[in-house]
Amino acid sequence: MAEGRKVTSSSAESATDAAEEAAVRLVYRPQPADTLAGLRVRQRIMRWGLLLRSVFLTLWVGQWLVGTVNRGSADVVSTVLFLLVVLVVAGYPRLQAAHVQRIVGWQGEYRTTVSPAGITTSSDHSTLIQKWSVLQGYRETHAHFVLLSRDPNIMCLEVLPKHGLSTVDDVDRLRALLDRHSTRV
Predict the structure, then answer these.
(1) Model confidence over 45-62: pLDDT tens digits?
(2) Distances (CA, A) of 138 to 18, 59, 124, 183
(3) Torsion 44-48-54-60 (CA) sign
C-alpha cells in the first residue's frame, strides 16, 4: 500500500486515457515496397552486405574479362553466367522482399499501436509485443518509419508505412513518440 497516496478509479482512468491519447495507431496491409524500404535502410546501416555484393560482382567482372581477353572473344556460356550473376546481385533486395512478402502477406491486415510502453502489432493470426529496449533506433524515409532491432546483424525490422496512419497529424505524433523513446540512426 502506498503511503500518502490514494489511487482512485478516476485517476487510474485518467492515466489510461493519457496513455491511450499518446498512442499512435496504424492499420495497413504489408506491401513488397514496404519490405523493400526496410531492407534498403538495413543495407545502408549495415554496409557489409553492400561491400560483399560489390566484391562478389567485381570478382565476376574480372573473371569474365580475363577469360574474354585470353580467348580473344566472349564465350557465350561465361557471358550468360556473368549476366545471370549481375541480375541476381542487383536484384537480391527485391528477391528478398518478395520472399518476406510471402511470409507476412497471407496474414492480412496489420494493426500496430505505438505507445510509451512499446510497439504492439496484431494480425488475425498473431500478436507481437516489443518493448523499446529491443530497438537500437529508427530511420525515417519519405514513406516509412523503419525500426531496427538491437541485435548485431539487425535481423528484425519493423516497417511502419505512413499510409497506415489515419491522419497527417499522426506522422508528427509518431515521429515525436519515436524520438522520445528511441534514437534516429
Answers:
(1) 887 777 887 888 888 888
(2) 24, 34, 26, 6
(3) negative
Question: Among 159, 176, 178, which Cα is nearest to 105's?
Answer: 159
Relative to beta strand 127-130, strand 135-140 is unpaired
d(C-alpha 84, C-alpha 63), whole Å: 14
**Radius of gyration in angstroms for the set of CA atoms belonging to the chain, rounded to a whole number:** 23
Task: Please count the helices (runs of H) and the strands (runs of E) in the chain.
Answer: 5, 7
**Amino acid sitting at position 33:** A
Taking the C-alpha atoms of residue 86 and residue 56, their distance in angstroms, rounded to an integer, is: 10
pTM above threshold 0.70: yes
Give per-residue pLDDT as tens, 83-94: 888 888 888 888
Q: Is 82 exposed, middle or buried (0-12, 13-18, 19+ CB in 10 A)?
A: buried
Distances (CA, A) of 33 to 65, 118, 143, 184: 35, 25, 10, 22
